[in-house]
Specification:
about 280 residues, alpha+beta, Ribosomal Protein S5, domain 2, six-stranded mixed sheet, 9 helices, 10 strands
Length: about 280
């Protein structure tokens, strides 16, 4: 069996206050991209997750173990992950991989969505990747009509950023909005996106409150954002907790042209589009 795990682009991220459980409230638009990891699931003698080139804990391994803890009785599997989504880049690659593993047991186990929330704030939205308005700490997912066409150029950093470190820096900088403001922004986003408009039509709402924290930790993000703007991006922002810089374009042709015009130091730029088939 072969599974896809699309990258998740935060078209915007409005940060709320820290909750009693240590997580932050947020309001965000999640958009799956054509950029995706590829997972191959094979029969095996024992459960195993293999992800060449990625060291350390793997959220997909945790997802498989959690399924077994919940009583999933399927014979052992070997999950081979071909990473295409940059690691620790604010694009939800690890969460997407974990969600893909959880989908293996959707027809056999109850409580998969609750289990996803236990694994990580971005995992619930990736169980059924779609354009969505997301609230809570990521567990409240409201599916929206697919957006009108656009394309993105992603400029990853050579080194990832820890989500926990970025949120800690946001707390140090005293970033965060009140619940009433988050509700108001959610309403504006819902109204703007409800008709299937391209995000370029409501670019004034495409802001990321975590950008200041990410840039505080990685000042070089500014140069990537400036390069994207110089290449003609209609709007630029940081994806998720960073450090990936994002530029939005009208179509894939414009995005390809812009990527080719970026300075050589950004030769790792990735061109992608919204994934309508996710």
């Amino acid at each position: 069996m072969t599974l896809r795990a699309p990258a998740k682009l935060n078209l915007c991220l409005y940060l709320g206050r820290r909750r009693d459980d240590g997580l932050h409230e947020l309001t965000s638009l999640f958009c799956p991209l054509t950029l995706a990891d590829r997972l191959v699931v094979l029969d095996a003698e024992r459960d195993e997750v293999v992800c060449p080139g990625v060291e350390g804990p793997n959220l997909a391994t945790a997802a498989l173990a959690a399924l077994r803890d919940r009583g999933w009785s399927h014979p052992p599997v070997r999950v081979e992950i071909e990473k295409r989504v940059p690691v620790a880049a604010g694009l939800g690659g690890g969460s997407a991989d974990a969600a893909a593993v959880l989908r293996l047991a959707e027809e056999e186990l109850a409580g998969i969505r609750e289990l996803a929330a236990e694994l990580g704030a971005d995992v619930p939205s990736q169980l059924d990747p779609a354009f969505a308005l997301v609230g809570g700490a990521g567990e409240d997912v409201e599916r929206l009509p697919a957006p009108g066409h656009f394309a993105v150029v992603l400029v990853p950093s050579g080194e990832g950023l820890s989500t926990a470190e970025v949120y800690a820096e946001a707390d140090r900088l005293e970033l965060g909005r009140g619940a009433g403001e988050l509700d108001r922004l959610a309403g504006e986003l819902r109204a703007a996106a409800a008709g299937g408009a391209s995000p370029l039509a409501y670019s004034e709402l495409l802001a990321n409150d975590l950008a200041e924290a990410a840039i505080s930790l990685r000042p070089e993000i500014r140069a990537a954002l400036a390069a994207l703007a110089g290449a003609g991006a209609a709007v630029t922002f940081v994806s998720g907790s960073g450090p990936t810089a994002v530029g939005l374009f009208e179509d894939i042709v414009a995005a390809d042209r812009a990527a080719a015009e970026l300075p050589p130091r950004f030769a790792n730029a990735i061109v992608a589009a919204p994934d309508a088939g996710a």
